């Protein structure tokens, strides 16, 4: 939708489900130039994505209706005899170490509809997905955390906490452990998820989709 605001400004509005983008163009001596760009989700202003891929990822993970519970994508199981990339095995080991001794938490690795590896960690209240993309570095094939929305967190009752954790694995794990005895003592690491690089040692078979 295009609306004119006087003779010196044009507002372009694009609506996609629960998202609305508003771009304001102002007249200058060199023609029309973008003056501002805003993103709204469910009518509330949100930080604007840094790129169109990030915006597309946001559109994909949001249901069309704000009242519809959030649902994580289904994962295709990986055959038990498949060898997982070393980077995935390393992430799986680290998470198992951090969460060792916690009852009611399961781990798994599968592929989503885009063919990406996804590490899934589930408790009775929250499910955490960490997505990985295949990359080539110095001619070698490896995997690294997805460039857009690598971490997704959804509660058992369908509340999406992805924006809340801001891509930080430590925050996501704290949410996963909320309500579990000793959750405040978990050593979850710090900062954002760091993409693993290719070329690591292949030291064990992956354990997949076990309960």
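^ structure tokens above, recovered residues below v
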């Amino acid at each position: 939708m295009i609306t004119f605001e006087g003779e010196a400004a044009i507002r372009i509005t694009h609506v996609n489900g629960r998202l609305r983008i508003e771009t304001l163009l102002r007249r200058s001596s060199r023609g029309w130039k973008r003056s501002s760009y805003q993103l709204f989700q469910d009518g509330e202003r949100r930080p604007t994505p840094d790129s169109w891929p990030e915006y597309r990822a946001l559109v994909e993970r949001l249901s069309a209706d704000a009242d519809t519970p959030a649902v994580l994508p289904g994962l295709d199981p990986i055959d038990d005899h498949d060898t997982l990339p070393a980077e995935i095995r390393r992430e799986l080991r680290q998470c198992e170490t951090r969460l060792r001794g916690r009852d009611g938490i399961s781990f798994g690795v599968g592929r989503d509809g885009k063919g990406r590896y996804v590490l899934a960690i589930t408790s009775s209240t929250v499910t955490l997905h960490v997505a990985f993309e295949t990359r080539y570095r110095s001619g070698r094939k490896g995997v690294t955390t997805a460039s857009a929305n690598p971490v997704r967190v959804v509660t058992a009752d369908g509340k999406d906490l992805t924006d809340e954790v801001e891509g930080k694995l430590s925050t996501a794990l704290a949410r996963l452990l909320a309500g579990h005895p000793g959750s405040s003592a978990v050593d979850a690491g710090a900062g954002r998820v760091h993409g693993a690089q290719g070329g690591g040692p292949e030291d064990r078979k992956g354990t997949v989709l076990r309960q």
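Residues 101 and 182 are 10 Å apart (CA to CA).
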